[in-house]
């Protein structure tokens, strides 16, 4: 057990274990986006930083088949930030909030040595999509293309440049895909720590393993911050899932099925 899992284990209750906590039809989710941990200032503009911080947090809500309604922002800003730069930051938050019809209702701001952001999202759902629910024989699939985020991050560390529409900068959430397919999905989560790391969470939540029908290289398996969807569904709904994915123009890759075979995550942990 790594330090993150050890710490979380002290707060074990029925609400912890998914991308957000489901309570009385609401989903509460929160993620951090810290300078020199999740990004370096030279990589992104202030507007891009705020947009990504919001999208990373909205991903959890959408992954749970919830409709984001409200956001609370906590922003620790360097004392050297200018009024123009703080305006750019605010514009980034507001743009994404408008795109997803989310109202920013409060939060906190403090002075800091660097830019650290946390966002709390409050969402509504009638049918939450949970990690629990994978049975033997269910198919496993992921949306989009995996591996690009790690490749682009490596390029940034090597002092290279990436396009402003790069997946590392401009996240595309699968809102329409989840909306269209939720009635057929048995379990799901967003891919934030890498496909194999998130499969490990599914395996532990359901006391199950996986058999792979498609070879997945390390680049694809271990790339974090993809914010695609990992889903499980009955094999009888395979054609329906493909058809609905096509409606929302969402690439869907079926790569295996659930078995009693033990799953071992071969990727290096993104957390401590």
Protein model, in words:
By secondary structure, the protein is an alpha+beta fold. It folds into 2 domains: 19-124, PurM-like, N-terminal domain (60s Ribosomal Protein L30, Chain: A, 2-Layer Sandwich); 139-259, PurM-like C-terminal domain (Phosphoribosyl-aminoimidazole Synthetase, Chain A, domain 2). The protein is 32% helix and 27% strand. The protein is built from 8 helices and 10 strands. The chain has helices at residues 3-9, 46-63, 83-99, 148-157, 175-181, 195-206, 218-222, 238-247; strands at 21-23, 26-34, 67-78, 103-112, 116-124, 139-143, 185-191, 209-212, 228-233, 252-259. It has a 5-stranded mixed β-sheet with strand order 1-2-5-3-4, with helices on one face. A 5-stranded antiparallel β-sheet has the order 7-9-6-10-8. β3 (67-78), α3 (83-99) and β4 (103-112) form a beta-alpha-beta unit. α2 runs parallel beside α3 (83-99). The longest helix has 18 residues, at 46-63. The protein is globular.
Helix and strand topology:
Layout lengths: L2 H7 L11 E3 L2 E9 L11 H18 L3 E12 L4 H17 L3 E10 L3 E9 L14 E5 L4 H10 L17 H7 L3 E7 L3 H12 L2 E4 L5 H5 L5 E6 L4 H10 L4 E8 L13
Helix pairs in contact: 2-3
Produce a short descriptive summary:
With 272 residues, this protein is an alpha+beta fold. Helices cover 32% and strands 27% of the residues. The chain has 2 domains: 19-124, 2-Layer Sandwich (60s Ribosomal Protein L30, Chain: A), CATH 3.30.1330.10; 139-259, Phosphoribosyl-aminoimidazole Synthetase, Chain A, domain 2 (Alpha-Beta Complex), CATH 3.90.650.
């Amino acid at each position: 057990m790594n330090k993150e899992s050890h710490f979380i284990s002290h707060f074990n209750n029925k609400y912890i274990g998914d991308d957000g906590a489901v309570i009385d039809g609401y989903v509460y989710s929160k993620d951090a986006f810290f300078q020199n941990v999740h990004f370096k200032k030279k990589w992104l503009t202030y507007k891009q930083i705020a947009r990504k911080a919001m999208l990373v947090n909205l991903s959890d809500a959408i992954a749970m088949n919830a409709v984001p309604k409200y956001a609370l922002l906590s922003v620790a800003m360097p004392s050297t930030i200018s009024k123009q730069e703080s305006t750019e930051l605010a514009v980034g938050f507001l743009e994404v909030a408008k795109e997803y019809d989310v109202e920013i209702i409060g939060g906190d701001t403090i002075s800091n040595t660097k830019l650290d952001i946390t966002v709390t999202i409050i969402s509504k759902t009638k049918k939450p999509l949970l990690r629990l629910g994978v049975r033997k024989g269910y198919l496993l699939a992921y949306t989009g293309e995996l591996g690009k985020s790690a490749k682009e991050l490596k390029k940034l560390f090597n002092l290279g440049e990436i396009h402003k529409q790069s997946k590392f900068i401009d996240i595309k959430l699968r809102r329409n895909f989840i909306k269209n397919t939720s009635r057929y999905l048995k379990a799901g989560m967003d891919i934030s720590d890498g496909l194999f790391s998130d499969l490990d969470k599914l395996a532990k939540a359901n006391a199950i393993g996986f058999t792979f029908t498609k070879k997945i290289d390390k680049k694809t398996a271990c790339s974090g911050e993809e914010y695609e969807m990992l889903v499980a569904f009955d094999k009888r709904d395979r054609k329906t899932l493909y058809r609905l994915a096509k409606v929302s123009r969402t690439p869907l890759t079926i790569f295996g099925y659930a078995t009693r075979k033990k799953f071992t995550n071969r990727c290096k942990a993104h957390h401590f």
